[in-house]
Fold DNA-binding MarR family transcriptional regulator.
Amino acid sequence: MTTLYDLPGHLIRRLNQISTAIFAARMDEAGVDLTPVQFAALAALAEHPGVDQATLAGLIAHDRVTMGGVVDRLEGKGLLSRSVSAQDRRARVLELTAAGQRMLEQLAPAIAEVQQRTLAGLTPAEAEAFVALLRKATEAGNEYSRAPLRTGARGED
């Protein structure tokens, strides 16, 4: 029988705990008040400027309710701005502010370090293979998520 310590779900949860702790410690060292979800939102906005909040939620596989609070906090920190959409006056488009862009640029080395420390027990080739396999498994199970990743137009696949 497989033990708890060999179950993929348990190991994934543990690695997530480890990665989150490393991220928090590294942000603390940098003197930055930023969570992994907030970082993901900023990184997605850097790649997809001008999306609405629902699309942003899909781009980082988070639920819309959670995304509302994330956007509120990032706007409060001056890292993103909301404005009325020219196409749909009811929608608000999101953009990184200059401060948000600077923060992403300044954090790039720290984020790379977090990734390296998270996979520190692996060789570079193993880390590359591991990430490829994680991506494959995640993509295969995307439909089962309560907040699936949506990368198409307006966050739809």
About this structure: The domain at 4-144 is CATH 1.10.10.10 (Arc Repressor Mutant, subunit A). The CA atoms of residues 78 and 99 lie 7 Å apart. The radius of gyration is 17 Å.
